Amino acid sequence: MGLYKEESYAWSNALYKASLGGFPDNYSDEKQFLSQLKKNVTVVRYTFGEAVAGACRIMGQVDIVCLYLLIFEHVQMKQLEAHKLLALATTFALFCGALYMSLNFKHFTLDVVMDRLRTLITLLLFGYGFIPLIRTLTTSISTDTIYAVSISLFFLSLIFHDYGMNAPIVSTTFSVNLSFASSIFLISRVENDELAFYLMALSLCAFCFWPRLRNTIFQANEYFLPPALLALLCPVSIILVYEGLESLPLTIIHANLHVFIVLMCPYLLVHMQRYKNTIHGPWDEASLSQTLKILPDRPF
C-alpha cells in the first residue's frame, strides 16, 4: 500500500501544501518532470556598453593603485620632495572633501561639520604619532619581501573591492584593510617620518575615502561617468609609468592592460553569453518565494 495516491492529488514544487500530504521528499511527478523544464530563467544579459562601463570601474581602481605605487617609487628615487608630496596629498584631500560636501550639502549642519573635523583631527594625530613606529616596523624584513607582500595585498584588495556593483565577493572593509596594510608595508621603507606621514595620508584618501565618494558619483550616470574618469586616469598613469620607471616594455604592458580589461573582456563576456545554458525544473529545491507564488493566499 502506497503512502500517497498520484491520481488524487496534484503535486507541485512547494515547501508546504496541505494537499501534498503523503508525498515523500524525493518524489517527482514523471508527467511534469520534462514539461516544466525551463532554461536560463535567472540569466542576466549584459550589453557591450554595460560591460565596458563595469570594466572601466575596475580599471579605474587599478590605475589608482598604480598611481600610488608610482608616487611611492618617485619618493624612493628622491624625485618627489616632501613639500610636493604634501601639496599633492592636500589637493587630493581638499578635492574629495569639497566634492563630498557638494553631494551632501543638504545633510550638513554645524554639529555634523564639527564631528567630521574631530574625526579628521583624531586620525591625523594618531597617524602622526604612530608614524615612527610604522616606519621602523619591518626593519628586520628584506625589502624584496616587503614589496612582494605589498603587491599581493594590493592585488587581493582589487578582488574584494567595492566597485559599486552587486557581487557576493565584495567586502569593503576587507579591501580597505588590505590596501591600507599594503601601503603601511611600503611606508616602512621610507627614509623619514615626514614623507611617511604624507604617504599614509594619501593612502587614506585614495583607498578609504575616494572609493565611497566615487561610487556615489557614479550613481548619477552609471554608463558615462566610469569611462570619463578612466579617460582622465589612463593617460596620467601611462605617462607616469614611462617617465617614472623609464621602461618602454612596462609602459606597453600597462597600456595593453587597459585595452584588454576595458575592451576585450567585455567583448568576451557579451560573446559568451549566448553559450550560457542553465536548466530549471521540478528537481530544483523548493524555496519560500516559489511556494508563495504557488500559494499566494494560503497562510503558513
TrEMBL record:
Predominant subcellular localization, coarse grouping: membrane
Annotated TM spans: 85-105, 117-134, 146-164, 195-211, 223-242, 248-270
Membrane topology listed for this record: Multi-pass membrane protein
GO terms assigned for molecular function: glycosyltransferase activity
Pathway(s) annotated for this protein in UniProt: Glycolipid biosynthesis; glycosylphosphatidylinositol-anchor biosynthesis
GO-annotated cellular components: glycosylphosphatidylinositol-N-acetylglucosaminyltransferase (GPI-GnT) complex
GO biological process, one term: GPI anchor biosynthetic process
Protein family according to the UniProt entry: Belongs to the PIGC family.
Name of the protein: Phosphatidylinositol n-acetylglucosaminyltransferase domain-containing protein
Organism: Ditylenchus destructor
Classification of source organism: Eukaryota, Metazoa, Ecdysozoa, Nematoda, Chromadorea
